[in-house]
Amino acid sequence: MNPEGSNLYTQELEKALEAELMGSKGGFRLMDDCFKVKGTNLTIVVPMELDHHSAEKIRTGADKIVQGRNIRSIVFDFGKTNFMDSSGIGMIMGRYKDMRFMGGTVIAVRVNERVRRILTLSGIYKMIEIYEGLPQQSTLN
Question: Which molecular function terms from Gene Ontology are attached (predicted)?
Answer without folding.
Answer: anti-sigma factor antagonist activity
